Structure to design on (119 residues):
């Protein structure tokens, strides 16, 4: 079992920055990938970015590439989503998720944190 808990959401003006955190606990060694997703009102949940637990490599959706950064702390218990040059269209509930080794989908999800970007 793996538990994920996001924090750091809030209200920010367009052009500003915000950093989300996700505490990962439990059987972390079973997780191959940690991802960030978001869901805007009236829209489906979408992929934002992810980080490999094996080598800390990252990749991002084109809508945030160059603006968002994902990192992990040295103890590997936290992942962060640094969001820069925020736009109103980045407004959404942001979720972190974990994918187990061998899994084709994300198996564990946090409860989400709201990010609102005002114009």
């Amino acid at each position: 079992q793996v538990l994920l808990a996001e924090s750091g959401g809030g209200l920010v003006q367009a052009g500003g920055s915000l950093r989300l955190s996700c505490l990962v606990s439990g059987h972390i060694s079973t997780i191959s990938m940690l991802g960030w997703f978001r869901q805007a009102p009236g829209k489906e949940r979408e992929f934002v970015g992810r980080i490999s637990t094996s080598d800390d490599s990252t990749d991002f959706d084109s809508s945030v590439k160059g603006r968002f950064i994902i990192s992990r702390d040295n103890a590997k218990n936290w992942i962060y989503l640094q969001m820069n040059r925020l736009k109103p269209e980045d407004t959404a509930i942001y979720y972190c998720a974990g994918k187990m080794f061998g899994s084709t989908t994300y198996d564990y999800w946090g409860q989400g944190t709201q990010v609102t970007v005002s114009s």
